[in-house]
Amino acid sequence: MNGAAAMPYDFDLFVIGAGSGGVRAARIAASHGASVAIAEEYRVGGTCVIRGCVPKKLLVYGAHFAEDLKDARRFGWNVPDCDFDWTVLRNNVLADVDRLEGMYGNTLESHNVRLFRERATITGVHSVTLASGRAITAKYILIATGAWPMLPEIEGAEHGITSNEVFHLDECPRRVVIAGGGYIANEFAGIFNEFGAHVTLVNRSDQMLRGYDAQIRDRLLQISLSKGINFRFNAPLERVGKREDGTLRVHIRDGDPIDCDLLIFATGRRPKSDELGLEDVGVELDGKGAIRVDDHSRTSVESIYAVGDVTDRVQLTPVAIREGHAFADTVFGGNPRTVDYGCIPSAVFSHPPIAAVGMTEAEARDRLGAVKVYTSDFRAMKNVLAGRDERALYKMVVDAATERVVGLHMIGPDAPEILQAAAVAVKAGLTKQAFDDTIALHPSMAEELVLLR
Ligand code: FAD
After folding, report:
1. Virtual torsion, Cα 318, 319, 322, 325, nearest 10 deg
2. Of 91, 97, 122, 441, whose CB has the highest number of CB atoms within 10 Å?
3. Are residues 16 and 163 in the same domain?
4. CA of 322 to the centre of ligand 1 (A)
5. 309 pocket-lining for ligand 1 (C-beta < 6 Å)
6. 101 close to ligand 1 (CB < 6 Angstrom)
7. Are 29 and 88 part of one and the same domain?
């Protein structure tokens, strides 16, 4: 602890939660000269590193080999029939997660951030208490506790798992039911389908991937169906039963029950704001349990800030990191900064993946009135030779009044890799003409972006 007798607090900053937002805030605050401590109740790195983006993306890579190995034969490779061993992939992924956790720990250590590997709760506007009972004071407290999967309140919900557990399965299930219609549901549907499981995605409404462009969503649905993923729409879960042989029977409204070996709930994530002591110190929450903050991430209590998923602004890692960084610059760096939430690119790592930035066509029509839409509906060269009947779709939405590109929406191989670069142009407010003026890089899929008609 900071031993300076004159200092009224143990630390300048106490961060609760060593995930994406908390680690960045702690590191930057320390680099501005603040004395910083951080508490983590589970593993350093948080959701993204331990049980989110990173292990998920590694499984996506692993899953895609199912298609690559098949396609390789059309490119002349003599590929014998291959087996997939889940335990090898799982263990390698978990080992990489361990490696990254170590790196995050080293980063904190090298910035002299004091790490407490235990749960913390807030006990005063300048004080926290650790699970061990130790009380610590700080000039500022930052809440970066993330979000937690929500389970539907139905009979037998305890038989299902969430994304928290999915990376630790003993074996790859034969039949999987995934409840939900968001990006996590679709990503795991793709992963297990590629591993050869019989996958059924069960969604309570008739629409999945809300927020993404309707045409792109529909293309994913068509491709997923053709790959053998089953969908049940308008099918709220009613109950889950466990049968004598250990398998599950999932009952849905107005439909036949579905038998499976594994049920995954991907039914949303709630801000992790409960049992933190927030009510006692007067930190306000919204109706969904998200901590209310101002543009500088300050809560209703002057000395307490919050960043990341617990504030439910945009639940993505790069956003949590930006918010944590801006907080540290503002409070400790003498450089008040806010986060610009415009044009945040995002992806669905399905097979093939989706990537998008800016307004969908429907949003643009709603907000701007007159819009122009340009599309390219094509089969990637590689898919043509592979005999894979899977078409990519790129879509550009342009404000008719200004000719500015206000949205880009893509589904196809490597779409997230391509979109990240194109998102710079959309964020910069470039026009369709600027895209057209750029000479194509041939042959590539990305060239479609400058050839849109
Ligand atoms: P977290 O990273 O969740 O960190 C919060 C930390 O606080 C946790 O480590 C938790 O253990 C700790 N904690 C909580 N309460 C306490 C307490 N009282 N005391 C001490 N410690 C506490 N985002 C993307 O951008 N791209 C993706 O591809 C992507 N894929 C995802 C896939 C899955 C399956 C999931 C679940 C999420 C995914 N996300 C993705 C979202 C991303 O992981 C989160 O937006 C991001 O991790 C939020 O960061 P955070 O700092 O707010 O919280």
Report:
1. -100
2. 122
3. no
4. 14
5. yes
6. no
7. yes
